[in-house]
Design a protein that fits this description.
Mean pLDDT of chain B: 92
Mean pLDDT of chain A: 93
Number of strands of chain B: 0
Shape of chain A: globular
Radius of gyration of chain B: 11 Å
Largest sheet of chain B: none
Helix content of chain A: 10-25%
Order of helices and strands of chain B: HHHHH
Largest sheet of chain A: 6 strands, antiparallel
Strand order of the largest sheet of chain A: 1-2-4-5-6-3
Number of helices of chain A: 1
Helix content of chain B: 55-70%
Oligomer: heterodimer
Strand content of chain A: 35-45%
Strand content of chain B: under 5%
Number of helices of chain B: 5
Number of strands of chain A: 6
Radius of gyration of chain A: 15 Å
Chain lengths: 149, 82
């Protein structure tokens, strides 16, 4: 599916091209880093490498998609799942322009509107990054006042 | 004070930013606003309470826990009903 069908994120800050699997328990998506991504100009000049935070963001967007999918099924009011915790995060590969990644998320728990999942980024099947991410459901992106619920 | 309160305080103490307030906190102390437990960590408190008191706390019940007293009352009620 097109991630824009479920996520509020848009270019230039949408780091999923497709979502191939989306259930309450797991999700999988893909993204190809374009040659002209804005961050490559400065990270680093002449030696472009995908910033680790962008990989975490890709994992977070998939987590958010999984949360929103679950919220829809359970009849919960949510427009996004905002990052509230990142832990056990490691980076294993340097990703470069043109690389295509697969992003995976496996639910650990959903309690009280808080979703936690173990997430992975892979390139050609090889682990590039991994993290445990926690997101809290947000009812309204513009009226939340910076607070997650 | 019930036996439950010290255990609840011990668990909340792992995640409370305002540990000084926790020492003197009573039933009315708000877990988030007064004790400084973040929304990110509230679920950790619930998971630890479930393990410590050997019970399951539903999402509806989580939504009703605002103060220390709320947590203690809920746990005592569930223990009595078990």
């Amino acid at each position: 599916m097109d991630p824009r069908e479920i996520l509020p994120h848009r270019d230039p800050f949408l780091f999923l091209d497709t979502i191939e699997e989306l259930t309450q328990e797991r999700a999988r998506g893909t993204y190809r880093f374009k040659q002209d991504e804005g961050f490559f100009a400065g990270h680093f000049p002449g030696a472009p490498i995908v910033p680790g935070v962008i990989q975490v963001e890709a994992m977070g967007q998939l987590l958010s998609a999984m949360g929103l999918h679950t919220a829809k099924i359970l009849g919960m009011n949510a427009v996004a799942f905002a990052f509230v915790l990142i832990s056990e995060c490691q980076f294993h590969l340097a990703l470069r322009p043109g690389d295509q990644i697969t992003v995976e998320a496996e639910r650990m728990f959903l309690r009280g509107g808080v979703l936690q999942a173990r997430c992975r980024v892979k390139r050609d099947g090889e682990l590039a990054a991994e993290a445990t991410l926690r997101g809290a459901k947000v009812d309204n992106l513009f009226l939340s006042g910076g607070k997650t619920k | 004070m019930s036996d439950t309160m010290p255990k609840v305080k011990q668990i909340i103490g792992k995640f409370a930013k305002n540990k000084a307030a926790l020492e003197t906190a009573g039933d009315d102390a708000k877990i988030r606003a007064d004790l400084g437990v973040s929304s990110a960590n509230l679920v950790d408190v619930v998971l630890e309470l479930e393990e410590a008191f050997n019970m399951t706390i539903s999402d509806d019940e989580i939504g009703r826990i605002a103060t220390l007293g709320d947590a203690v009352k809920l746990i005592d009620a569930k223990a009595k009903a078990a």
